[in-house]
C-alpha cells in the first residue's frame, strides 16, 4: 500500500519523499539497459495495433542496417499482438537502436526495446494422476464396483 501511495505521489508531482524513490522507480522498467546484447535481435513491446511492418522498419532504420522488422499478428483475427521483433546486422547497431528507441513514442504509443530471448521448446504438461473416486487421496488407478442388489429394499 505504501508503494502505491508513493507511486501516486510521484506521478502527481507532489512528492514529499526523497528524490531517491523517484530514481528507483524510474530505473525499475529500464533495468534491461544494463544487460549487454549477445544477439542482434530486439524484442519491441507496447506497439500500437496500427503499427505495421513498414512503420516499424522506418522507425528503426536510422540506427543501422535492418535485416528484418516484423510485427506479430494473431492468426485468427489478423490483428497485431502489440509486439514485434527487429533484427540488425551487428550487435553494435542493435545496442544503438535499443538506447535510441527504448521508452520512445511510435504511432502514439510508448514502446519498450529489450533483447530478444530464444524461443523455448514446447513442453506439454503431463496429465494429472488419476484418483480413486472412493478415496480422493489415493493415487492408484480408479476402479469401479457395481452393486449386485436388484430391486427395491425397504
TrEMBL record:
The keyword RNA-binding applies. Coiled coil: none annotated. Keywords: RNA-binding. PROSITE patterns: RRM. GO terms for molecular function: RNA binding. Residues 136-154 have a biased composition (Polar residues). Residues 119-154 are annotated as: Disordered. Residues 40-118 form the RRM domain. InterPro entries: Nucleotide-bd_a/b_plait_sf (IPR012677), RBD_domain_sf (IPR035979), RRM_dom (IPR000504). Pfam families: RRM_1. PANTHER family: NUCLEOLAR PROTEIN 8, RNA-BINDING (RRM_RBD_RNP MOTIFS) FAMILY PROTEIN. This is RRM domain-containing protein. The lineage of its organism: Eukaryota, Viridiplantae, Streptophyta, Embryophyta, Tracheophyta.
